[in-house]
Amino acid sequence: MTMKCFSFFTFSCFSMCFWELSFAADIINPGQSIRDGETLISSFQRFELGFFSPGNSNKRYLGIWYKFSPSTVVWVANGKNPLADEYGNLTVSNEGNLVLLNRENSIIWSSNVSRVPENPVVQLLDSGNLVLRESTDTNSDSYMWQSFDYPSDTLLPGMKLGWDLKTGLERFLIPWTSADDPSPGEFSLSLDITGLPQLVISMGSIRQARSGPWNGLQFGGIPRMHNSVFIPILAQKEDELYFTYEPFNNTVITILQMSQSGKMQRLVWDAMKTEWRVLYSWPFDVCDNYAECGANGNCRISKTPICECLKGYVAKSPDEWESTQTRECVKKLTSNCQSGEGFLKLPRMKLPDIDWFNGSMNLKECKAACTKNCSCRAYSNSEITGGGIGCLMWFRDLTDMRECSKQYIWGQDIYIRVPASELEQESIKVNSEVPLFELSVIVAATNNFSQENLLGVGGFGPVYKGNLPTGEEVAVKRLSKNSVQGTEEFKNESILIAKLQHKNLVSLFGSCIQGEERLLVYEYMPNKSLDYFIYDLERRKLLTWQRRFNIIKGIARGLLYLHQDSKLQVIHRDLKASNILLDDDLNPKISDFGLARIFKSDDEAAQTNRVMGTL
């Protein structure tokens, strides 16, 4: 190449310099080469390929960098084998390989293609991908070789982190050894596909951190921060399985990079300051260290100490609990899954390493399958999309779990098998404001849940009339084993009604938690519910317009209290005629808070994960 300068005169005089090339600025044709001091530039001037010396090093490397930020090298060809001087030469060999030659014309790096192209050209694409292809073929599926298949420390938009299942090629990131040395460092970032796909940071063969499995939207253990910057994508095809991402729009320039310290960093270009800004670095904290709290342990960064055993488990060696090498939790009691065991919901958790999954089962089917198998320790959804689909089950120790903070959108619900005593302790814990009844008292009050005392059956289960020893009439809701609702709705209702006091809300007298029994004890409403009247041709005549208007006003007062005037701002989510109870004077009282949700007082709306209520 030679540089020529020309002067042009119009209204003023200026000079213009350019490289005299016999080929396009982004292409190397056969017989041509790029020498040290010369560069290839992609068509839209975004990327540049050439020789560089990193940091304080005097060694030379062939690399690709952003043209607007020459110090940001995103790919290195000869990181393991640097040039000793400025006599490097990149060309296409007679065999059709892209090769890097030194002063002695010895090959120090090669693309090593197995299929020889007839008319090879090398091109630097505007994606940052350096490709070797037939001169007449621009189809990406027919590239003989591409730099995107051999990443260095940076994942550009459109690059694939993962596997070509047909050839066995794995694409992963390895950081530089140091700022002066782009040779491969000791860490790596890869896509583990042994179970559900997840990102793993390793040092050699030792895991340092894992992202948690892909849940349909993201990796569960990495928060969805800055989702206005990039869109994460997991592609599962017949012959490929990989992770990639796209910028949120064309104005965003963002990369994923592995630091020398073994952190995955998300960077975005700040055009105003002309610098890269770090959006986040993962691992975030000590709870992201792999198995920080050992088998069956839970890591909580907001608590001291940060490690605790899961419910139903105890430290195997309490004296050695402070040592991260010996932390292990074991079952507190001998398993007896045929009687007296249930499942405790742990919200916002990074799921442990996966044992088994089925993409076609729903959560209800998943629970049933786990319940039947005494070896099943926990279950969860495999995807959070569509309100939750797929089934995950665990049969071994639950390893590498952490409690995800409420600050970001991350984590999933997991249900762990625990003895009934743990469920009882947990529920009493939750309902400390609600009086507790002995089961024997409820059995006597309802005449052993006799059919004569049955008032009706709802989604929660049957409701019985009862008479307490004090003489008070009550309505007892009994959680059915086949209920579509469950322990979570039971806790939700008892907590909410205990905290809510209004004349147009039904009053909760107490609850009963004993063995497998879950019971709620309410004030008795002699006139049943609103639907008992309005859907009956004779009884509806008892509802004069004045009474109807009074009922409407009472419901409105109750809703105003729930939405605005109570300490807890509540959305009922299942308001219907059967959930409006009527007292002796036909005054309405809103009932059934099992599906209700609390939202912050300064929120104008609340978003739920799935459709709730009555069809």
Can you tell me about this structure?
This protein has 615 residues and is mainly beta. It folds into four domains: 150 residues, Agglutinin, subunit A (Orthogonal Prism), CATH 2.90.10.10; 134 residues, no CATH class; 139 residues, no CATH class; 84 residues, Phosphorylase Kinase, domain 1 (2-Layer Sandwich), CATH 3.30.200. It contains six helices and 46 strands. The strands form 13 sheets. An eight-stranded mixed sheet has the order 29-28-36-32-37-34-35-33. A hairpin with a 5-residue loop joins strand 12 and strand 13. It is elongated, with a radius of gyration of 33 Å. The N terminus is likely disordered.
Pick out its properties:
615 residues, mainly beta, Agglutinin, subunit A, 4 domains, 5-stranded antiparallel beta sheet, 46 strands, 11% helix
The average pLDDT is 84
Largest sheet geometry: 8 strands, mixed
Task: Look at the structure and name the CATH superfamily of the largest domain.
Answer: Bulb-type lectin domain
CATH architectural group of the largest domain? Orthogonal Prism
**Percent helix:** 10-25%
Inertia-based shape: elongated
Indicate the radius of gyration in whole angstroms: 33 Å
